[in-house]
Amino acid sequence: MNTMTKMKPGLTLLSVILLAGALSACGGNDGNEEKSSASPSQSETAEGTADAKEVTITLSTDNSQDAVNTANAYIAAFEKKYPNIKVELETRPGGTEGDNIVKTRLATGDMTDVFFYNSGSLMQALTPEKNMVDLTNEAFQQNVIDSFKSTVSYNGKVYGAPTASTMAGGWFYNKKVYADLGLQVPKTWAELIANSEKIKEAGMTPVIGSYKDTWTSQLVVLADYYNVQAQVPSFAEDFTAHKATNAGTPAMLRAFEKLQELHDKGLMNKDLLATTYDVGLKMLAEGKGVQYPMLSFATPAILQNYPDQIENLGFFAQPGDDASSNGLTVWMPGAAYIYKESKHVEEAKQFVAFVASVEGTEVASTVSKPTGPYLIKGASIPDDVPSLVKDMLPYFDNNQTAPALEFVSPVKGPSLEQITVEVGSGIKDAKKGAEAYDQDVEKQAKQLGLSGW
Amino acid sequence: MNGVFKRTYSYWFLLPAGIIYLLIFLTPTISSFFFSFTRWDLSDWQYIGFENFRMFFREQSLAIGFRNTLIYAVVTSSLKVVLGLLLGVLLTSKLRSKHFLRSIIFFPTLVSTIAIGIAFSMMMHPTEGLINSALSVVGITGPDWLGNPKLALLSVAFVDVWKGVGIALVIYIAGILSIPEDYYEALQIDGGTGWNKFWSIIVPLSRPATHSVIILSFIGGLRSFDLIWTMTKGGPGFTTDLIASIIYKQYQGGFYGLATAGNVILFLVVAALAVPLNLYMNRKEVDL
């Protein structure tokens, strides 16, 4: 990196001259501003808040439709409330490409003042101590529900505040087709397979696979975590300490086997490797595909693109082998973090405090319907959420939820999505996939410097 | 000594270029050798010896890149040689539309690789793509070009050849046109056939062109990245991962030390294959 800045003496000289010019220009401007604000003749444009200096802070979020809409809504409401603070939005790609951009910008000292980013294992990988402002003692943390705080904490300090509602990983299904075929929401995996076989006989795609967008292939494995932790409560801890592996823990291996079973029984669409997430949603909405293992965060996209079909859809948790322990795997929303080198930490804190308030959730819910309960005390879910979101609420009310593994362990391998593509398309079997994933997580654990690896 | 004093230009003239070379080529190269032995997060590093290299060779999803890269480089460069030579012979003959055809074949070289990748991955869609729709008209059920693990790498290699054969063609045209007429006249006097002309004159005497094509496309194939990334992202699973795409994914994962180690390996592999290949072919070259 150093070599980049030292590149060529000529260039350096040139940039020094330019920079000096720019700085002196700035100084000149500052002088002018001071003069003009001091002179009473020009104060006619200034209003009551004129003496508060205008500050611009920057915000980075990923470029998905929903994330951008939400960020813009926050910004509009925030700027209305704090007219002296302007927020500039920058977008970045999602997925691993976005992770790379965030890591690189942090490492090169060029991050936005506030950034929305994942909580859990991905946040842990950003070396929070070095890159983020400690928000443990901010007043707004009292609004945040405790179960969220652990997912944005590092060595006991809290670094973020939630930007959205919780999500769940589970199965979208078409209620109309279920009713037509006389099917019941499955409480065990065997029932889910039986339902799927019936759907297949009826000539429809039972399970939608959209592996062209590789991340979507992970859902069956990740959404099974409620069942894993119900059988092996200490798995996350042992996994982090390298005392348990995916392949060596039958409950975890079972998650990979479920994915393999979907492939072996031919329950997914034949062109799943060429199908994108957007096409998957379309298949679901149009009833060509009947079930779709997916995160509930797909709800706003379905609502926006297929508003007429949304009420035909329902949602259920990925069932385990035992009907008596049926529960939902929950994803924590991303969080707002403040860059440690930010020059406007106070203003950034005001913005984050706004996001983490009941008022903030109300603003967000106008553009992006919540996909589960909010993590802000006193925030409620509007009544007009799609019924599939209401399908999730009983799990929360009955305390039948567990956070996904990536929120209770910092160890998440970057290649899981490729491995689940292999298992789900029959290139590898479940056992080999789980073993490959054990190798993959080793890299992450070593990079994080965890003990025991 | 005398030589030095008689130089027209002093050594100082080398300094600007030397500094640039030192700072933006040598320093990164040497520092990358260093960082490949560390666990590195762009700011902090920790020396871990050969651990990164061990990991690169041990992990199946990383090691698969070597096999794929070799297959890809061999397939693309050999197809470019064969097709480039045949097209070169055709398009240096007395064909009326040869200038038009030359442009047609060269045209894909001018198009952005990313655009080609996106266009072909749409055409290769198993059910809605142009290729399989066309095949189904004549009653053939086309395979899943990019989804079938056995086929995907070859499908991408095919697109690479389609895109790159124009360069090979240009090199061959230049090579074939530089063969002196005398040889053809001698052939005529000896009563040689068209086959003799091709096999005994054009093939051996365009060997410099062949070598350029092989070296260029082989090295290009070894470090190919953009096409494979737009078409398959190394998938399905890891089946079309090349060394370069694996390195990229390690950077994405934040494993900077590991990724740098991968780059060092790629450098050594390219050098180990390209240098002997170059030496071997230089020895075989025939003077015109």
From TrEMBL, chain B:
PROSITE patterns: ABC_TM1
CDD domains named among the record's database cross-references: TM_PBP2 (cd06261)
Predominant place of localization: membrane
Annotated ABC transmembrane type-1 domain residues: 66-277
Any single GO CC term annotated in Swiss-Prot or TrEMBL for this entry: plasma membrane
Location of the protein in the cell: Cell membrane
Residue ranges crossing the lipid bilayer per the database entry: 12-35, 70-92, 104-124, 151-177, 255-280
InterPro entries according to UniProt: ABC_transporter_permease, MetI-like, MetI-like_sf
One Pfam family in the UniProt entry: BPD_transp_1
Membrane topology: Multi-pass membrane protein
Keywords, in A-Z order: Cell membrane, Membrane, Transmembrane, Transmembrane helix, Transport
Cross-referenced SUPFAM superfamilies: MetI-like
Organism domain of life: Bacteria
One biological process term in Gene Ontology: transmembrane transport
Entries under PANTHER family matching the protein: ABC TRANSPORTER PERMEASE PROTEIN, INNER MEMBRANE ABC TRANSPORTER PERMEASE PROTEIN YCJO
Family stated for the protein in its record: Belongs to the binding-protein-dependent transport system permease family.
Protein name, as recorded: Sugar ABC transporter permease
